Structure formats: C-alpha cells, structure tokens
Amino acid sequence: MAGFWAQRRVVVTGGQGFLGSYGLERLRAHGTEHLHVPEHRRYDLSRLEAVERMYDDMRPDLVIHLAAVVGGIGANRARPGEFFYENLIMGTQLMDVGRKREIERFVAIGTVCACPKFTPVPFREEDLWNGYPEETNAPYGLAKKMLLVQGQAYRQQYGFNSIYLLPVNLYGPRDTFDPKVSHVIPALIRKCVEARDDGADEIVVWGDGSPTREFLYAEDAAEGIVLATERYNDPEPVNLGSSYEISIRALVDLIADIVGFRGRVRRDTDQPSGQPRRKLDTRGANREFGFRARVDLREGLKRTIAWFDAQRKAPLVRHTIDRS
User: Fold this and answer.
1) What is the C-alpha to C-alpha distance for residues 20 and 14, in angstroms, rounded to an integer?
2) pLDDT tens digits for range 212-270
3) Which CATH architecture has domain 2-175+214-245+277-297?
4) How confident is the model over 11-49, as pLDDT tens digits?
5) What is the rounded CA–CA span in Å between residue 180 and residue 187?
6) From CA 197, how far away is CA 44, in angstroms rounded?
7) Distance, CA of 18 to CA of 178 (rounded, Å)
8) Helix, strand, or coil (residue 163)
9) In terms of C-beta density within 10 A (0-12 exposed, 13-18 middle, 19 or more buried), how is residue 260 classed?
10) Could you state, in order of their start, the residue ranges of all structural domains in the chain?
11) So which residues are the catalytic ones?
C-alpha cells in the first residue's frame, strides 16, 4: 500500500476530529507523505470560497471527507436544520469543486442514520432506499445520503471517481463525552464513571433499553476507509461494521460492569429509544477491499473507559462540531 500512498497528495476533512485523528494515523502508517488537513478556523467548508481556496492551497489528488456536524439523539432533535444544512452543503461543495479540479478520487462517508427505520436485519446496501430513516436523526442521515446520489450522478455524467462508505455507530478513545452532543457509548461511560466516583446509587438512561445497535471501534473504521480509498472503485455504497449486535440494555450492563458501577439503572421511557434495530451486512467490505473489524466490543470499551478515566484528571477536549 505504501507505493499507492507515497506520491499522492491527500486531504482529510475533519482530520482534527474523532474519526479523523485515527484516519491520519492509519494514512501515515500506510506511507502517506503528503497529508493535508483543512482547519476550520482557516477553511469554513460550508462556504464555497473557502472550499475553492482549500483546493488551490492543498492541490489534492484524493479527498477523504470525514468532516461532519454530529451528535446523539438529543442534539439531532435540538438542531435538525443545522445538521441537515451544514452536512449537505459541505459535502456537495467539496465534491463539486473536486470534480471540476479533476481529482483522482473523492471518498464520501455516510452514516447508518441514513438507513430506513424499518428494514430487514442485517441492513444490506441495496435496502438503503426502502424506507424513511428513523425520525430523530433523519435530517442528518438524509443530508449524508445525498452524497451517494451526487457521487453516482457525477460518475454517470462526468466519469468522476467517487465512492461512498456507510459506517455503523463508532466509538473509542478521543470520542466526544459532552452530554449535550455525545452518542450512546460515551454518554453511558460518562454516566457510569461519574456515578461510581460520586457514590451514586442509580443512573438514568433514555428509552426502554430494547433497541439493538452495532458498534465499530474508530481505529478499525479508519483502517476500512484507507483500504477502500485504495482498492474500491464502484458507484454502489459499502457498509463498514463489526457484525456484532447488542441491545442497549445489555450495553448498559456491560459498561457498568467494566467501570465498576454497582447501582441501579432507571429507564426514562418518556424519552425516545431510537431506531428499533441496527446491524449491518458487512460481507461487501470484506469481499471488495479486504476489510474486517479486529477490536471486539468488550476490548474496545475497556480501552475507551481507560482513556476517559485518564482524561478526567485533566480538562476534556470536546469536539462539539467535528468539521475542522
């Protein structure tokens, strides 16, 4: 792989964010010598002028678009318009200007939130259009889904090389633990760690605990993206996941066990539970570019909890908008 990466100029949007930090590490490990990250303070990618200036300054051969405005159920419910517009406009402009500059490849990262609320499990890529996404995160999911439509249309009309990857829920060290925007795993880790340290006898968790989720360790996701960037060239989307499904109820118990929290879990059923099930069919990623997740959930949670525990000794770095 080093031969592929050594001479190509690579731009990673969102390179200073959660997934982006792992993406940069994996790219360097695979021999990338010309690696560029457009910092948000210099390049606001929601503005066309900034996108064009970024292409002028960095002259990429490949663009891996990881930047996104993201959050959990609460953030999606509070800011649906922002999540829709910011994610749509960033991706649309980046791909269009890249097409005009005739870059070699554009890698668009979608989201499992784009999948229909009710669809056979495991989710297959061909089922992506068989229904509307789960309502609490539909604006975000649909904005990211439009990058698939744009990439396929540009490939058909202009011969533009754009690929589209659909990662499942990500987690790991460096994730966002701010309760205003965090996803389920960091939110639960923070609740359990703080309850343990404060001697609390209970934690409160949204929903009834029945929905299931699949989680992918962020370092594994980054490796899958790097492999796909080099080896995959097709208009159809490809799922990235771990192939392991767990209920939220069981996830809470697992995190509490690792953390050492022995109190009661009270479920707030007045709050939404989210999509009933999420599990991807991941055979395509293995077949098309040799990707298979390596870090199992318990080990990944142990690493994430250890990192969060260490960070509590110093101020947390919180990426509330992961688009730098």
Assistant:
1) 5
2) 999 999 999 999 999 999 999 999 999 999 999 999 999 999 999 999 999 999 998 87
3) 3-Layer(aba) Sandwich (3.40)
4) 999 999 999 999 999 999 999 999 999 999 999 999 999
5) 9
6) 40
7) 13
8) strand
9) exposed
10) 2-175+214-245+277-297
11) 140
Contact yes or no for 300/215 (Cβ under 8 A): yes
Averaged pLDDT for residues 290-305: 98
Tokens of 111: 């989201």
Q: Which two tokens stand for residue 228?
A: 């796909």
**Where are any strands of DSSP class E within the chain?**
9-13, 34-36, 62-65, 105-109, 162-167, 169-171, 202-206, 212-217, 238-240, 245-247, 264-268
Task: Give the pair of three-digit tokens for residue 209.
Answer: 């605990």
Residue with tokens 């080093």: 2
CA distance 90 to 15: 15
Write out pLDDT tens, residues 39-98.
Answer: 999 999 999 999 999 999 999 999 999 999 888 778 888 999 999 999 999 999 999 999
**CB of 206 within 8 A of CB of 272?**
yes
One-letter amino acid at 263 equals G
Confidence of residue 323 (pLDDT cuts 50, 70, 90): very low
Bridge-based pairing of strands 62-65 and 9-13 is parallel
Largest interatomic CA distance in the chain: 62
User: What is the spatial distance between Cα 109 and Cα 166, in angstroms, rounded to a whole number?
Assistant: 6
Phi-psi region of 274 (alpha: psi -120 to 50; beta: other; left: phi over 0): left
134-143, 165-174, 234-243 — which is least confidently predicted?
A: 134-143
pLDDT (average), residues 291-315: 93
The amino acid at 122: P
Q: What is the C-alpha end-to-end distance of the chain, expressed in Å? A: 27
Structure tokens at 269: 């059923």
- CA dist 176 and 307 (Å) reads 12
